[in-house]
Amino acid sequence: MKFQRPKGTADIIPTDSKKWQYVEETARKIFSSYQYEEIRTPLFEHFEVFSRTSGDTSDIVTKEMYDFKDKGDRHITLRPEGTAGVVRAYVENKLYGPEIQKPFKTYYIGPMFRYERPQSGRLRQFHQIGVEAFGVDNPTLDVEVMAMAIDFLSKFGLTNLKLAINTLGDNDSRDNYRDALVAYLIPFKDQLSDDSKARLEKNPLRVLDSKDKGDQEIVKNAPSILDYLSEDSQKHFDQVKELLDALEISYEVDSTMVRGLDYYNHTIFEIMSDSKAFGGKFTTICAGGRYNGLVEQLGGPETPGIGFGLGIERLLLVLEAEDAKLPVEQDLDVYVVGIGEETNIESLKLVQSMRKAGFSVERDYLNRKPKGQFKSANRMNAHFVMTLGESELETQTLNFKNMKTSQEVTVKLSDVYTDFSKVYQNALKLEVEADGE
């Protein structure tokens, strides 16, 4: 029997995982500078956590969730997105308490699961980086979240990014707009797709998000939510635009934009790239918005919130297509070449000593001849090679070779054990001197 990974999943092998680690560490550094701290929530939650928050007409709930009954007959769901689980943790752990700094800022990195047709950059098990901030309704936080997302993407050298923004307004705005949108769509009801017919009854704003080409033609002339904003909603959105202008962050307003999850309100945004990975067409790589009211849906107090999410697989497609600088090889400071069986114990002691001193070190384990070991050192891009043979054992010395300059020096074995950092730095000085000649 031939075993293969499940459809829609991927193995991240060591040659690729270095890139993943780089993306994740870059996220951690950027988010930390904005005072966001990591949260880790379960991979599965009770079904209601997502059905209640994402909306029972959303594609996630109706088509894409991996849900099942466990042995205790509990309805369980593999998490399809990160926000709802974080909100559940926020409520359950009472992270809204008076002693906790506001806004409460957090981020997550991890796998999500959606049963959808696998395609490039879109898998059934995919990985998401996301941030959430709770407790502040100030438009300044909306803009800070967008700025942080742009900072993160810009760290990889991505420059041709487009920020699109819109507002879904408050409850009054949405109610008024809903009535106007339904009045517009009713005459086209028979022409709508089956999904949009169902949404027209339960959540007509979702019709605007339809991927059906016929639906898209119909909604082209639909009324704009920007014409139905309450005074407070208009003020909030105007301040968002004013603050983006103050930071000199270019943007465009897309009044047709809606998010695929029902919990969004007020500011929503998408960051797009026209990367070659998507055929040069602007495609969303990061999206988010404000979700005031979501905390209350999961049993918490009235608490505003805002955040964004992006898929790591999708981001890596862009970075590789745009030739972004990503680490592909692991640094190796020293390769120890042991010549002869009698050097095995000393070689082991040497590599362990240098590793404990904070250096990346490797050795031969196959009893190969020196030539084969030097080939390994070259393949692994070792900076230095340390050679230990019978004569070196006798004299208690080592041959230390710079693989870049081919310079060789003899060092005392005791110096390596006593202070290898000093030995290494001295060798680097010789390299600098050689480069200067």
Automatic annotation (TrEMBL):
UniProt xrefs under PROSITE patterns: AA_TRNA_LIGASE_II
NADP found in the keyword field: no
Primary localisation category: cytoplasm
Listed GO biological process terms: histidyl-tRNA aminoacylation
Keyword set, alphabetical order: Aminoacyl-tRNA synthetase, ATP-binding, Cytoplasm, Ligase, Nucleotide-binding, Protein biosynthesis
PANTHER family named in the record: HISTIDINE--TRNA LIGASE, MITOCHONDRIAL-RELATED, HISTIDYL-TRNA SYNTHETASE
Protein's UniProt name: Histidine--tRNA ligase
The species this protein was found in: Dellaglioa algida DSM 15638
Gene: hisS
